[in-house]
Design goal:
120 residues; Endonuclease I-creI; 4 helices
Length: 120
């Protein structure tokens, strides 16, 4: 099970494209990392002894966009709708230098709103 979302790394930053997959079996995520060739693998902290160790694969920004181009035909449900919207609009609304004109910023806000309206 994975997630396609737009998230902020810091409170005052713009949203970035993020694809993540969480699983208890590290071997599965190692396989995803090797096949994709991009992203990072991290271990989630456990707070109780009864909790199992959990791992997360994560890729963001243009690397996530590239991965999305490859996996979109295999997606189902609302995730496919989100992926298609991202593929259609994300690059045009995300300048590489992070400098947004007022017009692009407004269009990006509308894009983010439309993105999060797509729910299961």
């Amino acid at each position: 099970e994975g997630t396609i979302t737009l998230s902020k790394r810091h409170k005052n930053e713009n949203r970035q494209l993020v694809i993540s997959i969480s699983n208890n079996e590290k071997d599965i995520l190692d396989y995803v990392l090797n096949v994709a060739g991009v992203g990072t693998l991290s271990r989630k902290r456990t707070y109780k002894a009864s909790h199992a160790v959990n791992f997360t694969y994560k890729v963001s920004n243009r690397q996530a966009y590239s991965l999305l181009q490859q996996i979109t035909p295999f997606l189902k449900s609302y995730k496919k709708e989100r992926a298609l919207l991202v593929l259609k609009k994300y690059l045009a609304l995300t300048p590489r230098n992070g400098k947004y004109s007022k017009q692009i910023a407004l269009q990006k806000d509308n894009f983010v709103t439309d993105f999060f309206k797509i729910t299961p």
